[in-house]
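Title: Prediction job returns without error message
Component: structure pipeline
Severity: low
Priority: P3
Assignee: unassigned

Description:
Job completed but the reporter wants confirmation the result is attached to the right record. Sequence as submitted:
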Amino acid sequence: MNITFLNFYMSSLRNMFLLSSIAIGLVGFSDRFSYKKRQLVKIFAIGVLLMAILMGNTSTNIFKEIHLKNMNSDELTPSDKIILEQSRIFPLFAYTYSGVLAVLIVTLVLKMLKNLHKK
């Protein structure tokens, strides 16, 4: 049986983690700019974080759909069954990380709004 969709999913999750790392780096780097440019960099970072969440959730939905179809296949070898059974936990990682990123986005937006009212 062909279970290469697991490679697709792992690659998509890796891309989600890399995108979010870039966005977090941008937030940290934004302190080196003036106030207006700092806010623009943070807005861009929020956009990248949203893109990471979208990428993770979209690939997770695709993975779950393909996973469900393959679990009922008659072509599964015993090792394929073990791999597919173990891979059922992967969406939990993606959803948890998406939740962490959502909390980060809310924190950034609230901090930006608080700083906006100070000015």
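Comment from assignee: result matches the submitted record. The chain has a mean pLDDT of 89.
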